[in-house]
Amino acid sequence: MHSVLASIASFVMRNVLADFLAAMKGERNFRKTQSELLSTLEDNPPTSPEIGDTTIASHTDREGARRKSLEEKARSNLTVVSVCSTLVFAGLSFLIGQGITVRPHTRIILVTLFLLQVAYFAGSVVCALKALQITRTWVVSTDEERQPADFLRGLRLRYLELNELETNIKANWTSVSFTCLRNAVISLLFFAATVGVLIARPTK
Question: What is the reported pTM?
Fold first, then answer.
């Protein structure tokens, strides 16, 4: 029984709530880890003689490409939301213009589906914008370039860790945005199907 309830709760958190709470918790944890890394950076200068410069540079390039890909996905979500929102309100205007009468329970279904669409579309936009606002990047400054090779290598590795955490935060919010968008589209399809049935219904 406990496992069933846990599965239901997990499904609700992941799909209905779009992992929004998990993204918030993840961001807090990642920020805490970043603060710890930055504090150790000041108190205990890093050294990393066991990892080569080429390896660090390769991971840094890969992380930059990952961040760019997430930003493109977030912008795509905004574009899709814009198009779908136009379709929703156009369909709503058409429905009103048809003067179709609906029963009370059908009206409740339509209103619920419409509000779900609006909520999920809004959530998708908010989370996509939040992902795009995460832009901080740690890079080696010209003054730090004058440091000894071992220290500089360790510094680059530490900055790579900080950037990975920042990208993880961006990835979480982009994922939530996509899940909200998916739920909005599902609600839109149910809404359109209900409207289609009403239009096709023979008049008495």
Answer: 0.84
